Amino acid sequence: MPDNEASAIARLRDRIGQRASRTLGQWGVFFRGFLEHPRMVGSIIPSSRYTIDKMLAPVDWDRCDLFVEYGPGVGTFCLPVLERMKGTGRLVAIDTNPLFVDFLNRTIKDSRFTAVLGSAEDVEEIVRFAGHEQADYVLSGLPFSTLPGGVGEKIVAATERVLRPGGAFMAYQFTAAVRDLMRTDFRRIDSGFEFWNFLPVKLFWAWKD
After folding, report:
1. How far apart are CA 36 and CA 184, in angstroms?
2. Is the pTM for the entire model greater than 0.85?
3. pLDDT computed for residue 74 by the predictor
């Protein structure tokens, strides 16, 4: 594709995304993020409440001082996590898309919450910068099946290192790619499935010994 044609398509996609974000609010921001970075957004539709409830069910909230989320998008999981979290807990959301990070920091008015522009590969540094040594739970909606080669392995390894013993790396996916990556660093992996989601989604909980 010629450079001028690719540039024109990119400008058109950006205009559509900006118009959607202005017109549709949260959904528009999510759609714009998908248009701009389709390989880094797991779905064009946010997760259902059934998926959220089932994904978060195993969390021991009394023992959760730091909850980390990769790829929070427009915060579909952020508010449910904050609703369940104790008053002294902390939620750090990490995203590579400045559009999502800006939206979350502007709209979630909770002192326990911070959205950080960065990569999940750097979770150890981000957790230390937040004033913690380890995380209790890490949740990911990143599309591991479409990440560049080697990135998924690095994310899973860094996640295992940053988790406290007894903590869990939790992921919701349309494929089982993340489970295969988890097996290298985690011995116990529980799995589930939620039909009432667009599309039906696989759920995984990898526990650190």
Report:
1. 32
2. no
3. 87
Rounded CA separation 49/134 (Å): 28
- Contacts with 27 (C-beta within 8 Å, 6 or more apart), sequence order: 20, 46, 74
Phi, psi of 2 (to 5 degrees): -60, 150
Domains of the chain, by residue range, sit at: 3-36, 49-207
Q: Measured between alpha carbons, how far apart are the two ends of the chain, in Å?
A: 50
Average pLDDT in the 161-176 region?
Answer: 96
**Whole-angstrom Cα distance, residue 185 to residue 206?**
9
Buried/exposed code over 72-85 (b: 16+ C-beta within 10 A; e: otherwise): bbbbbbbebbbeeb
CB 47 within 8 A of CB 36: no
pLDDT at 36: 57
Q: Other C-beta atoms within 10 Å of 141: how many?
A: 24
Q: Which residues pair with 115 in a beta bridge?
A: 93
119-144 tens-digit pLDDT: 999 999 999 999 999 999 999 999 99
**Domain at 49-207, CATH homologous superfamily:** Vaccinia Virus protein VP39 (3.40.50.150)
- Phi, psi values for residue 188, rounded to 5°: -110, 120
User: Pick the residue with more confidence: 34 or 157?
Assistant: 157
DSSP 197: S
Q: What angle do CA 130, 159, 134 make, to 5 degrees?
A: 40
